[in-house]
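CORE FACILITY INTAKE
Project code: CF-77B
Contact: R.S. (postdoc)
Sample description: multi-component assembly, two entities in total
Requested service: structural model of the whole complex
Turnaround: standard
Below are the sequence entries exactly as provided by the requester. Do not edit them.
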Amino acid sequence: MVDRIAHQILEKTSGAAETVLLGIPTRGVPLARRLAARIATFEGAEIPVGVLDITLYRDDLRLQATRALGHTEVPPGGLDGRRVILVDDVLFSGRTVRAALDALKDLGRPRTVQLAVLVDRGHRELPIRADYVGKNIPTSIEESVRVSIAEHDGTDAVVIKNRGAQT
Amino acid sequence: MIKHLLSAADLDAAAATLVLDTAAEMASLAGREVKKLPALRGRTVVNLFYEDSTRTRISFEAAAKRLSADVINFSAKGSSVSKGESLKDTALTLQAMGADAVVIRHPASGAPHRLANWVEGSVVNAGDGTHEHPTQALLDAYTMRSRLKRLAGLNVAIVGDVLHSRVARSNVQLLHTLGAKVTLVAPPTLLPVGVGAWPAATSYDLDAVVPDSDVVMMLRVQRERMNQAYFPSEREYARRYGFDVPRMRRLPEHAIVMHPGPMNRGMEIAPEVADSPRSTIVEQVANGVSVRMAVLYLLLGGKA
């Protein structure tokens, strides 16, 4: 699936020049690193990878207990005038991406912003779509989609289950 | 997370570390073009200052503004306090205006604790009398950690007017929580009664403590709180407890010199020391904003 996204990116951006990958914690970060590695093997192009923590930009910040902050890391060279591709594991309501767009606006002015996700599960609540999708998985709103990444969870997997169901 | 920050003892090791880690993330904001985060949009922070202050008030104001909170500054001079309004009535006024957090500095020890019972929002102690100044301790710990990369096991000497120092009280509590070893160094007259019960060693001899110290924190001699003679003369005090160049030379290579400010140059700290690369005095002020942002975010950011 990551290969697929990498190829899509290379195809659509004709070689991924002037491109920066920004992973959204937690699982978007290792995904962005893997994508960059794949693109490097396919095309030989080194793509800078950064991290964009969106905690302080969430629209539900006030509805939950205080969250710990993640780390934001802008790759050397900055974001101004470049193509920024946001990377996340699951695209669901679109609220995370909205928060990421808000966070991005405080960091600089990219030429274009695109979105790559491993899984698009539907049920958008905002007018947001992904440019690169690993797999579209139509789901019911009752189901939950969990992506596990080896760097973070010890194994690579996408698990769909009924919410509230026993594991 | 806790609701109020009244004392450094309110924080256990995990909570204190969370504040320091959050502050480290907040510090990355300083390098950005847009130095603003939306986390506290629409929240109101009142700075209630009954005592003069430059650093702390400006630092809290900058911190709240960088988090997009609305800030109301109140100083006792020029307010109804000079007409005789009590702390409680002032508190109820603030309550009626819908303050989400009150940052209070007061000459009376314990005033923030009283205030916490009267208002619904969070109360942050920004220094109460000779009692506590928890955000100063947090920013000192943050400065030590960023310079020396650790806190556990550090030897910290806190030198000078411990008796009148809320900074010393908060620092002893917090550094003990975080695993550092604190030695208080002062003339016998400037050590408080009951200091034996504090989680810190004491000494009257600065020269004996200096060679083993990773951090030397000089305290201001608080002449405004001294109503009697605590030491024979300023020259004698500076000679025995002032931090001068020969003492700095006897420090270990990596050691740092701190001062919470404002300084009495030539009294507790020599100008050459204050302006040396070992001194973290200006750094402490910069770190103060990050640490106070972290405190305000952790107290106010989530669901009330």
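Facility notes:
- The radius of gyration of chain B is 19 Å.
- Chain B has a mean pLDDT of 93.
Invoice: internal transfer
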